[in-house]
Every structure is written in structure tokens, then in C-alpha cells.
Write a structure and sequence with these properties.
Largest sheet: 7 strands, mixed
Structural class: alpha/beta
Strand order of the largest sheet: 2-1-3-4-5-7-6
Radius of gyration: 13 Å
Strand content: 35-45%
Number of helices: 2
Order of helices and strands: EEHHEEEEE
Number of strands: 7
Length: 100
């Protein structure tokens, strides 16, 4: 099983560690995906990579990148951000998490 890479990409392109706020968005996005019926149909999806684009703000699409490896299938990629309501858009891969 691959190890998950948790990386924050800063505006200057350097890698760093995730802040508590970025970790919270990651956890909320994962929970939302786990509850999604389409995601539940995937066979053993494994989160293999996470990147936070530090050049964006948490409400910008593309802020948080999630890659799930699926044995024998194409990896599934999602881009999570905060918005006004919870929503998973499978066609675009956007995951909107309602900010508390």
C-alpha cells in the first residue's frame, strides 16, 4: 500500500507542512467523499497524494488536491475547497466543503 504524501506547496514553490486549518479541510473533504455513493462504488480507493496549493486561498477551486489510487483502474483526482454548501462534482472533480 503506498504511503500518503502530505505536502503544502507555498507561493514560492517550496514544499512545507500542512497547517491545522489545511488538515481540517483535508479531513472534511475525505469524510464527504467517503459518504458519496459514487465514491463508495470504487474498489479499495487509497489516498496516495495530497497537495495544498499555498498560492491560493481555501475558497479557491484547486486549493487542495487529493489523489486516490484504485487497483486496476485509473486514479481518481479531486480538488477540494471551502464554499457555501457541501457538494461533490464528479465531472470536474471539485469537492466543495461547507465551512463551519
Amino acid at each position: 500500500m503506498p504511503e500518503t504524501n502530505l505536502t503544502m506547496i507555498g507561493p514560492d514553490g517550496r514544499a512545507g507542512t500542512l497547517t491545522p486549518q489545511q488538515q481540517a479541510l483535508l479531513q472534511a473533504a475525505q469524510a464527504q467523499l467517503q459518504a458519496d455513493p459514487q465514491f463508495q462504488q470504487l474498489q479499495r480507493p487509497t489516498l496516495s497524494r495530497v497537495e495544498v496549493n499555498g498560492g491560493l486561498v481555501p475558497t479557491d477551486p484547486g486549493y487542495l488536491y487529493l489523489r486516490y489510487d484504485v487497483p486496476g483502474a485509473v486514479p481518481q483526482e479531486f480538488w477540494a475547497h471551502y464554499g457555501s454548501q457541501n457538494h461533490v462534482a464528479w465531472k470536474s472533480g471539485q469537492v466543495t466543503v461547507k465551512q463551519a
